[in-house]
Predict the structure of DUF2480 family protein.
Amino acid sequence: MKEEIVNRVAGSKLLTLDLEELYPRGQRFRVDLSQWLEEGLILREKEFRNALKAHDWEIYRDGFVALSCSSDAIVPAWAYMLIGSYLKPVARKVVVGSSEAMETLLFNECLEKLDLEPYRDRPVVIKGCSKLPVPLSAYLWSLQRLQDVARSVMFGEACSAVPLFKKS
C-alpha cells in the first residue's frame, strides 16, 4: 500500500519574507565628481558651478543616484551638496557613497517601513536566494526586526531553512 505524500510546508503557518519583493524599483546611477575636477583632482569653484549648470540633470529623472569621487581629490562637502541641489527636483534618492552603500540605505528604509503585524507570533523564513542585488546587511536588519515579533526566524527556503532565532 502506497503512503500519500503530504506537503507539510504548504500546510504550515510558515511565512516567507522575500527581500527581493522590497527591492526599490528604478534606475540606478553613479555620478563621479572627478569628471568636473581639473585634471580629476582640483575643484575650481567657478568652472565647477558652470559645468553643473550646463549638465543635463533630466537623465536622472526618478532614479537613485550615488555620488562619489573616483580620484584621490579632496572634495569639499559643499560640492556634494551643490550637486544634490540639482538632483533634488529629479531624482528619487541621492546619497554620497558607493552604489553598494546606496542599496544598503534603500533597503534599510524599506525594512523600517515594513509592517511586521503579519509576522507576529508566526514562524518566518527569510528567503535566501535573489536575482537582484540584496545587500547582506538587509538580511541582518530583517532578522533583527522580525525578532521583535516572530515566533521563530529561519533563513533559506522553506524546505531547507537554517534556524536563526526562536522565542523562548
In short: The radius of gyration is 22 Å. The chain has five helices and seven strands. The chain has a mean pLDDT of 92. Residues 28-91 form one domain.
